[in-house]
Specification:
Elements (H helix, E strand, L loop, with lengths): L1 H20 L1 H10 L3 H13 L9 E2 L2 E2 H18 L4 H11 L3 H5 L4 H30 L10 H27 L8 H14 L11 H7 L9 H7 L5 H31 L7
Antiparallel strand pairs: 1-2
Helix pairs in contact: 1-7, 2-7, 3-4, 4-8, 4-11, 5-8, 8-11, 8-12
């Protein structure tokens, strides 16, 4: 157990150092991601037809202020749940044979991927915490006020849940490469579905009843919609506890699926290349 903890700490520290090598490029790329906020504000302003001489309209229960607040909160959740390059990296390791080093060394491949992503997020938020604080300060008028303490705690819990579900889904897609060496098409389909089904594009309660009835039971909503909806007060305390338990169930299911796919994939792995 102590040896495993020591290995995980070395992985985390090494990955953080790796990220900090190109810290200027990493910081610039992080700051650029905040530019779409301006376009989103103008876009939703046009959609809601917000003018000084016209009362604010509502669409599907959302006012213009609600929509901007939702988008900003969803952006925070997506910062936790997005895993750029994870699935493609796993597929590349399998295709090129570099995954062999994890099969002959006392390093768990899935554990390495996890701590590598933890390191990425830690460095990302060290850089992004300032811009996030500035953005929310400038956009504070879009929020109606702070929710109660229980709701805030639920929101804070939902962020690592978003990270875990996002990580497990993408790593599972990458592990498909044990059976199909080229998974770029699958990744593209997933990214399209993720953008829509996670609530990043529009709130999921905007969807018509037949679609919303099954979308809300999928794990994708925990990537963006769920954390944002918590802070907007869309859940009672009882509903929030229930949703957190369901999210925990999805984490367990996805974790088991990842482990089973990895074990079975290694059994049929041919170690090509490398």
């Amino acid at each position: 157990m102590i040896a495993r903890l020591r290995i995980n700490w070395v992985i985390l520290r090494t990955c953080i150092e790796e990220r900090l090598v190109y810290r200027a490029d990493f910081a610039f790329a992080t700051l650029v991601r905040f530019l779409p906020i301006v376009t989103q504000i103008f876009l939703w302003g046009a959609i809601f037809a917000v003018h000084s001489d016209q009362p604010k309209q509502k669409l599907n229960g959302y006012s213009y202020d609600d929509m901007i607040a939702y988008f900003l909160l969803a952006m925070v959740a997506r910062a936790f749940s997005s895993m750029p390059g994870l699935a493609t990296g796993v597929a590349r390791d399998v295709r090129e044979g570099t995954i062999k080093k994890f099969l002959i060394q006392p390093v768990d491949f899935l554990g390495y991927l996890f701590w590598h992503r933890v390191a990425h997020k830690l460095v990302y938020y060290i850089v992004a915490v300032g811009p996030f604080a500035l953005v929310f300060f400038l956009c504070r008028d879009y929020f109606s006020g702070w929710p109660d303490g229980f709701t805030i705690v639920g929101f804070l819990i939902s962020l690592p849940i978003a990270f875990l579900i996002g990580f497990l889904i993408e790593s599972m897609i990458g592990l498909v490469s044990f059976w199909f060496l080229e998974v770029s098409s699958l990744i593209f389909v997933y990214m399209m579905l993720n953008y829509f089904l996670s609530g990043h594009m529009i709130p999921l309660d905007w969807l018509p009843a037949p679609v919303n009835a099954w979308v809300i039971y999928l794990p994708f909503k925990y990537l963006a919609y769920f954390p944002a909806s918590i802070m907007l007060g869309h859940y009672t305390h009882a509903q929030l506890i229930n949703e957190l338990l369901i999210a925990g169930g999805w984490i367990l299911i996805l974790a088991v699926a990842n482990r089973v796919m990895f074990i079975r994939g290694v059994r049929r792995y041919g170690a090509f290349g490398g």
